[in-house]
Amino acid sequence: MLIRILMGSLFIIVAAFFATGCNQPVQITQDQLVRNTQELMDAVAPGNSAPWKKYFAEDAMYFDEKGRAMDKAALLKDLSPMPTGYSGTIKIVHPQSRIVGNTAVLSYDMDETETVFGQHLGARYHATDTWMFRNGEWQIVAGQVLRYYEDPAAAIVDLKSLDQYAGTYELAPGQTLTISSKNHTLYAQRGDRPEQELVPEASDIFFRKGVEGRYLFRRGSTSKIDALIDRRNNEDLIWKKVN
Question: What is the pLDDT of residues 62-121, one digit of tens each?
Fold first, then answer.
């Protein structure tokens, strides 16, 4: 009787041990997370969906650099081989991670190079993925990608034409922006703030280094500048030229 009780207790202990062990996450390292993620990136150019099916959970949420919110089905549908004449690579750099229990967060940069019929392009992105250990495997349950802002290429313009943009522009009474031309360079200054150099992108279009958005100089019926349009993500503030 006592032996049966002891054997029964031992069975319960052993069963509990294995049940607990099965629920414990298999340890994962930052290096392994990076390898898995690089495998995903290597599959983008050929449109290979296999790693994406493997590493993304069925209920995953994914938010890309275009602002699209996608589930796993939409993400897989978005994968396709690059067209003829196109090639590219994406390299994972500067990874950081936090791994606690059954959850791991990997944050990293992506350096993308693309060749389009012999012309070379590049872009940089930042991504953060949340991995979870569920059903015996590590999978991504959420991911988000942001693109780093890059200044456009500067245009070659007639430097003598910059004087036509100089003047005072008014947003509202007491709110003015001064545009000045000095040494063949255009500057913008609002109130007592430091001047900002305006770099030409195209005719009548300028940008500020490191600042997303554009300054567009609007021409009136006489072809003279009558306003400055401060375009921010396709939302416009109009400053009327007052002198």
Answer: 999 999 999 999 999 999 999 999 999 999 999 999 999 999 999 999 999 999 999 999
d(CA 196, CA 208): 7
Q: For residue 2, how far is the Cα from the chain centroid?
A: 67
CA atoms of 26 and 11, how far apart (whole Å): 25
Side chain identity, residue 174:
G
Regarding beta strands 56-63 and 69-70, do their DSSP bridges make them parallel or antiparallel, or are they unpaired? antiparallel
140 half-sphere exposure, CB direction, 13 A CA radius: 25
Q: Using alpha carbons only, what angle is made at residue 85 by residues 81 and 87, rounded to the nearest 5 degrees?
A: 55
Q: Are 226 and 216 in contact (CB under 8 A)?
A: no
Q: Which helix H or strand E contains 177, and what residues bound it?
A: strand 175-182
Distance CA 199, CA 227 (A): 18
Global pTM?
0.77
